[in-house]
Design brief:
This protein has 156 residues and is of the alpha+beta class. Helix content is 16%, strand content 44%. The radius of gyration is 15 Å and the shape is globular.
């Protein structure tokens, strides 16, 4: 993770909009890959999205973030719900209120070698994560966000 990303001010509650972007089969969804941290030595996955800006709705935010980070648009955009994410990153307490959306990315990330670019210029890998993760998969943040999607789609 870049030095700029490590210097994020976590002293306040942040408002985010993030996307669960399933593949057409509904078996996996696109996530960014973050490197090792004190709490997650093997790294972790994070939903695509970011901070809501002053005067911006959370819907406008997720559309903007996907365009900026992936140069993509979202088809069939639907709001799923809100997740409160209280976490530690490099020992520092963080707190987010996350508006979770779902929709299909157009174009979808490649099966291998896909990346996204954050506002500070940091390039992160993007991978397809199976729903439910699996035993040997790194954690997904925000925690419990995937539950909103699977609750909407029984049998997954």
């Amino acid at each position: 993770m870049s030095e700029a990303a490590r210097e994020v001010n976590r002293s306040r509650i942040r408002v985010k909009a993030m996307l669960i972007a399933p593949n057409p089969e509904g078996t996996a969804h696109a996530v960014s890959v973050s490197g090792p941290s004190l709490e997650n030595p093997e790294g972790f996955h994070r939903l695509i999205g970011g901070s809501v800006e002053l005067g911006e709705t959370h819907r406008e935010c997720i559309i903007r973030e996907v365009d900026e980070e992936l140069c993509a648009r979202i088809d069939d955009l639907r709001f799923l719900g809100v997740v409160e994410n209280i976490f530690r990153y490099e020992g520092e307490l963080g707190h987010e209120i996350v508006f979770v959306w779902t929709g299909l990315l157009d174009p979808p990330p490649a099966l291998e070698g896909a990346t996204m670019t954050e506002i500070d210029g940091t390039v992160l890998p993007v991978v397809w994560r199976r729903f439910g993760g699996g035993e040997d998969v790194v954690p997904l943040y925000p925690a419990r966000a995937e539950d909103l999607f699977t609750a909407e789609a029984p049998g997954r």
